[in-house]
């Protein structure tokens, strides 16, 4: 007697935000999954989240850290979605009880990048003229830049990648340039607009925790999806990002505090993880930085490594800088 035909699996639903960048990222993951599981159907569900809607409220005044993730996580928990594709740097280090970070695929360029207004001749931060206005709403970027480039000024710049670029390029706008993540720019086809890649070796500023990587989030206990997504995981990207997230978790910072990091694999066989980190006061006048090298082989070792560097920063005065920032925030609306 032959087996009765099995009902085909329902499509695996991949949730994401509705920006062009988010959809491009989700399509990349869908294509990779389709290659691994050619018989399975995949469907992208792109949602307009609260974070996309409110363009004016200061980022830290939203209260909840997970402005971009909460609605998607609700749909994951209620089984309307099976996986969420996030920019890892937008993913809080504390996830809801019902959700898990299932996999981190190969990370793209984690660096920040400088983009100068179309038609202007400047190509580096150092050569921008006195008083030039840098568009950024990231206190991590502005605090580090104030520290190193006191001749620059800053103005908020929000919106998706394309909107921000259009605002900078507008000849009537105040912006001389902006800083954005290289990975974000490259994914939407704007690599050719990058004037300078920034990092410890050029420009001097450190990127956000998890920048340039994607985080794939699932319902806790969904072993079938965990197994499938595990096949997209990249080991070195995962270890480096988990170390960065443990540092952030220990310092209790979200995406709205000025903490920069940089990780690289060094030494024989590139088995040693080197992580630099910096915490800067908003005005750039005080900072604490350090770096740590260690062999890191497992997720637990990566988390312990990130925690250790965070503890060293705290001993050197990072908690005083962070506490002052939180205490001086205007009240939540
Ligand atoms: N905070 C916004 C955000 N979240 C993820 C990216 C780009 C993709 C990435 O760096 O992972 C960006 C834009 C930016 O900061 O320039």
UniProtKB/TrEMBL annotation:
Porphobilinogen deaminase C-terminal domain sequence ranges: 239-314
What is a single molecular function from GO for this protein? hydroxymethylbilane synthase activity
Which Pfam families does the entry link to?
Porphobil_deam (PF01379), Porphobil_deamC (PF03900)
For the biological process aspect of GO, one term held by this record is: protoporphyrinogen IX biosynthetic process
Q: Which residues cross the membrane?
A: none
Keywords (A to Z) from UniProt: Heme biosynthesis, Porphyrin biosynthesis, Transferase
> Which SUPFAM superfamilies does this one have?
Periplasmic binding protein-like II, Porphobilinogen deaminase (hydroxymethylbilane synthase), C-terminal domain
**Protein name (record):** Porphobilinogen deaminase
Provide the E.C. number(s) assigned to this enzyme.
2.5.1.61
- General function of this protein: Tetrapolymerization of the monopyrrole PBG into the hydroxymethylbilane pre-uroporphyrinogen in several discrete steps.
Residue limits of the Porphobilinogen deaminase N-terminal domain?
Answer: 12-226
GO CC terms on record?
A: cytoplasm
Q: Which reactions appear under catalytic activity for this entry?
A: 4 porphobilinogen + H2O = hydroxymethylbilane + 4 NH4(+)
Q: Would I find Transferase among this entry's keywords? A: yes
Q: In which pathway does it act?
A: Porphyrin-containing compound metabolism; protoporphyrin-IX biosynthesis; coproporphyrinogen-III from 5-aminolevulinate: step 2/4
Homology family: Belongs to the HMBS family.
Give cofactor(s), names only.
dipyrromethane
